[in-house]
Amino acid sequence: MRRIRNVCAFLLTAVTAVSLTACSPGGDSGSENADGPVTFTWWHNSTTDTRKAVWEQIAADYQAANPGVSFKIEPVQNEQFQTKIPLALQSDSPPDIYQQWGGGQGAGQLPSGKVADITEQTKPWIGTLGPVAEDWKSDGKQYGVPYAAHTVGFWYRKDIFTNAGITAPPATMDELNAAVTKLKAAGVAPIAVGGKDRWPDAFYWGYLAARHCSPEQLKKAVETVRMEDQCWVRAGQDLKAFLDTQPFQTGFVGTPAQQGAGSSAGMVANGQAAMELQGDWTPDTMASLTADKDLNSKLGWFPFPAVTGGAGAPGAVLAGGDGFSCTNRTAAACAKFLEYLVSTPVQEKLAAVGAGLPVNPAAAPALTSESLKTVFDHTQRAPFRQTYFDIALPTAVGQALNDAIANFFAGQGTPETIVEAVNQAAAGNK
């Protein structure tokens, strides 16, 4: 999970072992054979006892089905990956498997020469995962595999909407503004946002950009790392108009996104706010922040509304995913293990406990709530999938964008300065 998002208490029961056919060795000439003895050093970002137990069980099941395979598992704090991975990739002993979010961040690791090209090993099955797997590609080559997908949209309290006289989820920005007005009149914060963590702010600008910019413009900006079309400025202009309606809770700039009952997720969970623009991980986050055992039945989901005059593909989604990359020493064997992670039985177990949207569509029926099934179906039908901009762009550029948007939320800057921050960071990143 990018930035881990406090996604959920993962799988507690054993994951069914799945026997896999061998993949032919490829990539680095020093890679161990996929069927020979191998000990993986595996870095993942699940540091709580429950999450660690999930991956330990998955490793144990795989080991039982594949004699000669063993694991040395090292949980790493999510925020440490940005510094630990670059250092490890410059060393002589990088981890064999490590947490990866792809996009521009992943591409920035390739000059180390340590990240394995697993194109040949994954070619027979990677296509079944759909567009999400593209985030782990660079120049047409596969450098990792996602095990969970994520889509951002509005999670809302159906009971609060009803009490405020809102009969249907907003489908346009005008309808969203009207809902904000009704919710204020009902005495509840319309929308909660975790401005302290900054990245939740970026979802608003990112979605407005995906509504105003055509798919061609979105792709061009990511490829060239420049934002030149006026659609990018129009996204900021629409964001300014929305911010002027004061849709968020008092003190949103200092509110965390997911930590504690007073976070933006906690506010929705405890009925202090009506909705939050967040990913599919948020129902589990909210459930951990409230004593309300009926919360799940009160939550609904709707996609980010349409904008007037936008050139973006209607129904385009802002999305991401969690995955793993391999390094060269065990490339072929690692690719075989990643195939196991996307097999239907494993994906069903992960889907059943809210680990994210399954990347294997066959596992979708295992999702446990109708809302999550709605998110999955909407994502599958989406005409365009835009990866979170701070992941799609090089790391330094994505951070500059997030900072500029957060400053904009705090009343600093203009629609133009958001775009300028990206272009200036890109120039300095060359």
UniProtKB/TrEMBL annotation:
Pfam families linked: SBP_bac_1 (PF01547)
Statement: the UniProt record of this protein carries the keyword Ion transport: no
PROSITE patterns: PROKAR_LIPOPROTEIN (PS51257)
Record-linked SUPFAM superfamilies: Periplasmic binding protein-like II (SSF53850)
Annotated signal sequence range: 1-24
Record has Acyltransferase as a keyword: no
Keywords carried by this UniProt record: Signal
Record-given protein name: Raffinose/stachyose/melibiose transport system substrate-binding protein
Organism: Amycolatopsis magusensis
